[in-house]
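Checked the freezer inventory, then went back to the computational side. Two predictions to log before the end of the day. The first one is the construct we discussed on Monday; recording sequence and tokens without edits.
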Amino acid sequence: MPSFYKILGVPATANQSEIKKSYHRLSLKYHPDKAGPDSTAKFQEVRIGHGIRSTFIDLEQLNAAYEVLSDPAKRQQYDQSKKSKKPHASRRQSNGPYPTPPFEKDEFEVPDSSDEDPNADWEETQKRKRSSGNTGRRRRSSTSNKSSGHKRQTQAEDEYREQRRAQEEHRQKQKTERGQRYNKRKREAEEAEQQREENQQGQKKWSEKEESVPQEDMFEKARRRFMEEESARQLAEKEEMMERRKAKDVEAEERFEAAREAWKAEQDQFEAARKKYEEARKRYDDAIERWSHDQRASGSFWKSHGRETSQ
């Protein structure tokens, strides 16, 4: 019986995740939907030296190996049975019954393909498998393996179809993106080519123009253009300076007018104050004059009155 670890292609220390990944990978690789109706994927060509031999890949062995190794309890029992393989082999050689192991041996019994003839065809290999070993035990193990294998095969088919659908969508998306990138690069290349042609035409026209004009005339035109630009620059500077001066003169004139208006206002105030002062001075003089007149009149009155009383 071949090793289940060898069938799945994993080491004896592999964990459950590695076993599951290897099983799904091999199921998809050797699935009939992928291999075609003739199931040619059940045979893998292996080159040895200058010859080619066919190595049999049996899906029933693959399903049985995964069923045992995916269950920790069955895997432990299987590892223990591998350690006690030699006594079992000696008893099988003597055509004696199997000793009672800690688990049912039928659960792990699968068709052995390790001693097949590399040149044998498919039918002879299948006949030799069916004719070897205990028929009843093989029938029971084959029934259980087929039921569990059919279930896993259905799951593998669904996963395979889903994977194919996702791959097809991914390929279609990549194809669309490649088309878009190609069209974009094509447009950019056309625009670059058009720009290059325009530049070449412009350079050609400029070269023809330079060839048609003598070098001295070009220098004279450049000097004249420089003088015109310099004159225009100086004229612009002068105009700007005149504008600044005019602005300064206008500002100074405005300040002068404001000062003159303020001086006029002060003069008007002074004249008004002077007039008030003159009016007040006049009233004061009039009051002094009346008071003096009253004093004189009063003095003469008393003088005359005093003489009359003395007489």
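The second is the one RB wanted added to the comparison set:
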Amino acid sequence: MPSLDLPAFTPGRPAADVDGALRQSLAACEEARRCAVLWFAEVQRRELWRSLGHASLELYAVHRLGFSRNRYWQFKRLADDLDRLPVLQEAVTEGRVGWTKAQQVARVATPATASSWVRCAEQTGRRELAAAVTAEVARVKGVARKTARVAAKVAPAGGVASQLALGLAASETESCATDRSACGTPTDVDATTLAIPATIALRADALQAARFEALVEQARKRGLVPAQAGRMELVLAALEQWVTGGVSDADDTGDAATDSTRRHPRRRATVPPAQVIVHRCPDCAAATVTTAAGERPLAPAQVAALACDATVSEPGRPNRATIPPRTRRAVLARDRHRCTTSGCGATAFLEVHHVVPRSRGGSNVAANLVTLCGRCHAFAHEGGVALAQFAMAPAATAPAGPEQHGHGNRVPSPLP
């Protein structure tokens, strides 16, 4: 990538010189952003943040790069779009499309239309491109509204299905974009032909998949959703409850939006909504979980994280918690029901972690326990988190050595 020459600032220069220097500096900023997002996308694609000691790309961007949350999402969205649109990625890599134009193209382009939009970006100025993108967005929104009205008529009034139909209609930006000349007038399309399902792909490790299935089963058993509701309806209903007033693990009162949790006002703070059964071999310590796809092995770091905060079941013995429930509640309350990883602060999927591992003499006293979210907890057991990244609990000290500390209150999982 070419080096950037910036004009040194000198006050009192003629207007033409100031204008030229400013334009040169702005061009350098544009070029720097173009290069930066390519490197950022490389970090994301290869998950390099892990080898650099961070549990997530966001934590890496905020703490290592000094990004604000807004800047992180700006880079993250464009990096995702470059992976989604290889034609755009090639144009940005070769310098044919800059940062600003790439953001505009990514708003409306699909894999099928990316070439046309890239040509448009190459052949027009920024304002002309922005106008074309704005017109396309308005057209797609109009079609989506028509699609939503059609879908709403066939969905149960006020039900989860109607909300799903509206969500699908609003997500038709990709599906609606049809063949067109560069920045030309799009072809009119009948709205009813656009009501096609959108695909949302989520990747999960073995433990996450098992937890997801257990939570879905519990939601159905408790009658929290219609019997015919699919998994997408379940996800949307859960998110809607969360956004519109549902509680999180941070709510010590535990007041939830459902009758079930109202009858048990402290359920969320003390009892997991579902349990994931983990089978561990007593000889080799290998562990697996049962999912719809069959037995799936767990990584050693996942097993170690689970062993911090679990219920253990052994033949001929009563079930026992690795951390006494009273101590666990006290630690969560002390840490204000938040992940104590610096910069994280998550309030969901919390787990309690031993700073000094029990295998090295650590105990269940509160001073040796910290709260982490499941993500930070698992990463800590992988040995990738520097101790300085955690806001340690009072009086907790970590031993010298590679074992790192994370905190989390993952769903307690029996380890037979």
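For RB: The beta strands are 278-280, 287-291, 294-297, 311-312, 320-321, 350-354, 369-373. The chain has a mean pLDDT of 74. Let me know if you want it refolded.
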